[in-house]
């Protein structure tokens, strides 16, 4: 294989974020939510206590996996070598249907079998997307996003 | 028992800087010392009188090194503000607070950086800041230009801003740099065609929407207003100072709250104006942090020069040029003079109020200087 300098970056979770990645590896999009009675607010990025009620009790709530593209960029070099090899590529920001104030950074994938089946579709602001947990052909981390109507 | 105020209690009495270039031979430490000694010489103050230092993060030379090299006296106040370019004006704010409360008498703030010849911070993959980089970098959102590009596209979508608006910003900075022999882009005019045909970095941002990469250093000397009046330079008073870290703010990846387009400038501005004797309409010239062109319309809104969503339109009709509604970045700014994490904006604010800018606004008496928008920030209102 190549040196770390030539590989895509994998998430380096902190204590608070680790459950997100563990659930994602199982194909579930879950968000941290306050577990205090009468609160239940979702929060992202994960953190030790609830900014609404200051409770340290939390749970990981299953999301529908639906969202909309809030914005996107198309990255061109200079980039890290492994990313430069993919450039130009789009990075999307997806607001979640259940919590529009939570916007996940990610990449679009095609609607085929998810195994290098051709280039990803072009993003549009406002387009409906669904989380996709199949392995990315380029090795990017889970989850990815698929256009509901390509 | 009123709350004491910083208003006009301190003044910037000296400024200094090194040349700006893609590559300078000396170390950051040597450049820092040169800029600081130049600022003290400008003020007519001996290094042994310095008893306070202020810097901001991503500065590699610490107070111990600077103090012993320049021959400072016993130092009784030193502070370092966080968030890189968001901290530039915070240095002056902290020195002013220290001097106003009797903790020190002669303060030095500085920035030295070799980003022209040194590595780009985002290429460091060993430093994987888990929060918030785990949520962004693996997907290829690697650089500050990508992070701000995301906000920029949304801003354009919501408010009808175009690349021509961003060009207006780049051009104003370039035109001022073309008047400033110290600027890296002094002899490099920009046209609409050269802007529009430059290569993409992170669409919608092109090369000329990004600041320069510079080796260089700058410094300021802050003393009490009373002392400043006895010194050789015309005092430039620190009229108001503020920092800003909004509720539920996340830095340049401010994607996880109700309104990502209301950045720290809004928070800093509320405090800045609250403690000032004048308002946005009374600002003669502004030095607005410009690591990326879209930070200008966002800051114009945040600091109250126009309404929400009106920042792009504000740039039309030469508003940011000499003689316009609000001349900005009159030495060329980070886009066209030098990118030294915004400290050159402070020195240029001082020159405007002394009347010594290479793009002097006639009779300028008030100047807004801002630090990085999009990260926890800071700002100053200076007056002559």
Automatic annotation (TrEMBL), chain A:
Entries under Gene3D superfamilies matching the protein: 6.10.30.10
UniProt xrefs under SUPFAM superfamilies: Nucleic acid-binding proteins
Domain ChsH2 C-terminal OB-fold positions: 60-134
ChsH2 rubredoxin-like zinc ribbon domain segment(s): 21-57
Pfam families cross-referenced by the UniProt entry: OB_ChsH2_C (PF01796), zf-ChsH2 (PF12172)
Protein name per Swiss-Prot or TrEMBL: OB-fold domain-containing protein
Organism, as annotated: Streptomyces coryli
From TrEMBL, chain B:
GO terms of molecular function: acyltransferase activity, transferring groups other than amino-acyl groups
Thiolase C-terminal domain: residues covered: 264-376
InterPro entries for this protein: Thiolase (IPR002155), Thiolase-like (IPR016039), Thiolase_C_2 (IPR055140)
Protein name: Lipid-transfer protein
């Amino acid at each position: 294989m190549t040196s770390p300098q030539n590989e895509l970056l994998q998430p380096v979770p902190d204590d608070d974020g680790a459950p997100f990645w563990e659930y994602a590896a199982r194909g579930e999009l879950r968000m941290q939510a306050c577990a205090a009675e009468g609160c239940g607010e979702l929060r992202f990025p994960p953190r030790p206590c609830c900014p609404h009620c200051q409770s340290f009790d939390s749970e990981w709530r299953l999301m529908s996996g639906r969202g909309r593209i809030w914005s996107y960029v198309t990255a061109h070099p200079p980039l890290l070598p492994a990313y430069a090899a993919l450039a130009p590529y789009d990075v999307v920001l997806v607001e979640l249907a259940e919590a529009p104030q939570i916007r996940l950074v990610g990449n679009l994938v095609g609607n085929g079998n998810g195994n290098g089946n051709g280039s990803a579709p072009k993003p549009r602001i406002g387009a409906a997307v669904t989380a996709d947990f199949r392995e990315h052909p380029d090795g990017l981390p889970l989850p990815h996003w698929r256009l509901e109507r390509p | 028992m009123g709350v004491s105020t910083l208003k006009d209690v301190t003044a910037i009495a000296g400024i200094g800087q090194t040349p700006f270039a893609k590559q300078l031979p000396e170390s950051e430490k040597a450049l820092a010392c040169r800029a600081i000694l130049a600022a003290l010489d400008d003020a007519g103050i001996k290094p042994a009188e310095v008893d306070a230092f202020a810097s901001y993060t991503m500065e590699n030379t610490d107070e111990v090194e600077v103090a012993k090299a320049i021959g400072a006296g016993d130092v009784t106040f030193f502070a370092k503000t966080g968030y890189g370019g968001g901290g530039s004006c915070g240095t002056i704010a902290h020195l002013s607070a220290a001097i106003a409360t009797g903790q020190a008498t002669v303060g030095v703030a500085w920035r030295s950086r070799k980003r022209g010849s040194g590595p780009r911070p985002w290429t460091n993959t060993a430093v994987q800041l888990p929060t918030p980089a785990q949520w962004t970098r693996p997907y290829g959102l690697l650089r500050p230009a990508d992070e701000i590009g995301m906000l920029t596209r949304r801003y354009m979508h919501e408010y009808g801003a175009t690349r021509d608006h961003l060009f207006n910003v780049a051009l104003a900075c370039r035109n001022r740099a073309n008047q400033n022999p110290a600027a890296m882009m002094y002899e490099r005019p920009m046209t609409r065609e050269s802007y529009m045909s430059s290569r993409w970095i992170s669409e919608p941002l092109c090369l000329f929407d990004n600041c320069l990469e510079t080796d260089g250093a700058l410094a300021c000397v802050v003393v009490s207003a009373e002392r400043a009046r006895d010194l050789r330079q015309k005092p430039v008073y620190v009229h108001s100072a503020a920092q800003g870290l909004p509720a539920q703010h996340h830095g340049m990846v401010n994607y996880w709250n109700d309104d990502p387009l209301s950045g720290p400038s809004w928070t800093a501005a509320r405090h800045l104006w609250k403690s000032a004797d004048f308002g946005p309409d009374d600002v003669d010239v502004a030095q607005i942090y410009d690591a990326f062109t879209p930070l200008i319309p966002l800051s114009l809104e945040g600091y109250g020069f126009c309404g929400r969503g009106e920042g792009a339109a504000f740039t039309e009709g030469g508003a940011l040029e000499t003689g316009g509604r609000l001349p900005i970045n009159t030495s060329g700014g980070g886009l066209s003079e030098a990118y030294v994490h915004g400290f050159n904006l402070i020195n240029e604010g001082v020159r405007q109020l002394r009347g010594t800018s290479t793009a002097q606004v006639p009779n300028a008496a008030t100047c807004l200087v801002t630090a990085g928008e999009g990260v926890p920030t800071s700002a100053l209102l200076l007056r002559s």
